[in-house]
RNA sequence: GCGGGGAUGCCGGAGCGGUCAAACGGGGCGGACUCAAGAUCCGCUAGCUUAGUGCUUACCUAGGUUCGAAUCCUAGUCCCCGCACCA
């Protein structure tokens, strides 16, 4: 489809502006004059607009990108004209697998590949006239950037928020790396929707995002985000309240989490996940073979079939003690229990949980009803499905008759007294697995040293824990202060007396045999509980969430230790700040950063870093002995978790960003991007913000108070625009044909930007016409005085367009602009013409600059002040008059049609009889032009009027009489 | 299964208690201009009716609330999206 030729209607070629030339001219001038470069300015209000930075793919910018960037650009330009100090930067998420894979395929290097792609992106983005401050450009594969990834990794490490652990992880055989939980979608890899994710047991790096689960959930409330995204995050975090209950199995305690402690007396078996790492610790010898067979069978089942899967299991041979009745409860291994959720083991209450019910039926395990459905008699109850509703407790010892909600509370209390359970909250959110076994990413700044490993192990004080909870808190970073001295054992007296800063402690959880190592950062001693109590902050850290407001409460809380006061007297009170460490895992010192990604590596087999000798072989930062470098790289979502902060100070070589600068610009006032990041980038970035706040890097809680999700761009066939469907429209092609301004305009004129829309080749023409109309008008209009009507129209448009841009209803802004263009007159005041061009400027910046300069202006319209509404010029009477006029035009056409039908011939003249006070609304010239026939206007009281049929008598207010002949 | 969002005229899509036969754009049809085509401008685009009027059907289906519903409520159908054996 070629761009139509145009003329002025008289056969003369119309001057179609050379859009390309105009665009390039202004893009160049903006850049030369540093129009979009900004600095912190305390006198100006800042406004930070950000579009999610793209992964620079080799296929270049697509329509969805263009849409996204134009949405952000319009608001940037608008806010800039409103006088805000607008930060609008762009960067590239340039690490990542596709580049590495493409490089392998093309026998190239990811760096070359990526940098070509970036150059291409930049060229295309410039062509779209996007108002970026290019001096702040960042690319995550740049050592100047990823150095700070490593720095932040070490900060996380120091805070105890990074750990290395063997766990059940997701492995994509196509990506040849592990994936974060968030990157597994429906059992498949997020990049390879056809590739099954395998479950493996591997040692990997994790970040404790779960520490902030509660806050991440809670703070969603204060965000101005699409409800859909908030809901997705809420579901992802997945908070459930319930209880943690300890079942003793073969004398060892095992945890289960349940939301239904009220059904505790109905437990008839326990089920441990068949994938549980500790499963075989409880399998008895005679059951070993069956369990092994079962586990093997489970492994061969595809993730895909899991929802269709029958609940299956096998008895482990072990029995647990019921915590309240002491009954023996069989422990099964099952395929329907998730290893990674809760403790990986559940208590099964078949009468009141459908899954347990099915399982019990299948294996003939007794079903014990403990909650009575009101109105039913339990005697003759034949269960065909589990009863999951509420009701009155039965068969539950001393709790019979209680409502099940009350019972929850009471039963948990009873467990608590026996120290066999407590209230607990579980989240679906898992810790973030960040290590990747691939080359094209930020190297994890860690060195493994065997020497130091042995050294630390040897020098450590050994300390046993019997309290599951304290151990758990330390291990998950919730607590980094210990006050075991509140309850010291005689045996460890010496330890408490001698411990000092820099010592290592080996903590053994006697209940689970887990071992963790701690390094003592600080030791504080108190002579009495009273002294300790003065340290409010410390108390809060030791007993998080408990808010002791008196010593007596604190004492009471510890009263289960009969002689603790004596002990305090005897040994004193010691509190230590500790850090979780991993012996032999040595963080690279700050001064040695960045750990550079070596350029010369061999691609093809496994992780190229692992086979790069020069990289792997290194020296231990502590003992200087031979050591081995970590070869895993970071998930690229690490890069994007804080890039918005880097934009505030992109060139800083001393620190990730200057705190003052970040404080000025952050948070991001307007963030746009696709919804696909709801549970990945947007959770990680929020997590990072909270972490950085806690280490004093930033002062805000939430990085993106206002998030906007643009809709999806579909092809003309209505399907999502994609290469495979062959319905892709290249934005740059469109821009060449119709000009960038028409493209920009069209992208946001179809519908509200948060909705999906289908590309329309006819629609783009209408945007092109809009631009042409404006150009033609401003070329031909006579500058002078605006009519009252035009002033009214212009000011109405200012008001509406301002409001509509503010509320992201760009499509409405454009409707108002169209209507304004439609009512333009041959003469206009320069001021009004200027306002009109300004209103168009955010949408069509190039042509606006051109028209602006054609008016003799030397400065950029981009930096002009947004027009102010002059309310006094807005006169609703004018709208009414216009309506009446329009109605009259309608009526005339209607009359003409009827007359033609009746008389069989076309009328040539129209006579209008107007009430005397309405005279000014009806101008014969205007009407003639509109109707296309001569229209003669009379006042009804005109004695000399021509009115053969007395139609003047039909005239009513707002409705003149009509005669046609 | 759980959660979120939808269903509007030929099409895309506004509207979210009256001013709605329903913005705006597209398409189609007709007209003006022109030797002519495109472009531009004007009108029409549910049906019947009428010298500019009035009526009847209409906003997924069925009920309901209301003086009054495309808009609110109830039930249902269909579509899209997210999560999914989360104990």
Describe the secondary structure blueprint for this structure.
Layout: H1 19-32, E1 46-51, H2 63-81, E2 85-87, E3 91-92, H3 97-105, H4 110-127, E4 138-139, H5 143-158, E5 162-172, E6 177-179, E7 184-185, E8 188-189, E9 197-207, H6 213-218, H7 227-237, E10 239-249, E11 252-258, E12 269-273, H8 288-299, E13 313-321, E14 328-334, E15 345-348, H9 354-363, E16 371-372, E17 392-393, H10 404-417, E18 421-427, E19 432-433, E20 435-436, E21 446-448, H11 450-459, E22 461-465, H12 468-475, E23 481-482, H13 493-498, E24 504-509, E25 515-526, H14 529-534, H15 536-542, H16 551-557, H17 564-571, E26 573-581, E27 585-587, H18 613-616, E28 617-619, E29 626-629, E30 633-634, H19 636-639, H20 643-646, H21 659-665, E31 670-673, H22 681-694, E32 707-709, E33 713-714, H23 731-738, H24 740-749, E34 757-758, H25 761-780, E35 782-783, H26 788-806, H27 810-822, E36 827-828, H28 830-840, H29 845-854, H30 876-903, E37 909-914, H31 924-931, E38 934-939, E39 961-964
Parallel strand pairs: 1-2, 1-31, 3-4, 12-14, 22-24, 31-32, 33-34, 35-36, 37-38
Antiparallel strand pairs: 5-6, 5-9, 7-8, 9-19, 10-11, 10-13, 10-18, 12-15, 13-14, 16-17, 20-30, 21-27, 21-29, 23-26, 24-25, 25-26, 28-29, 37-39
Helix pairs in contact: 1-29, 3-4, 23-24, 24-25, 26-27, 26-28, 28-29
The chain binds one RNA strand of 87 nucleotides through helix 7, strand 11, strand 15, helix 9 and strand 34.
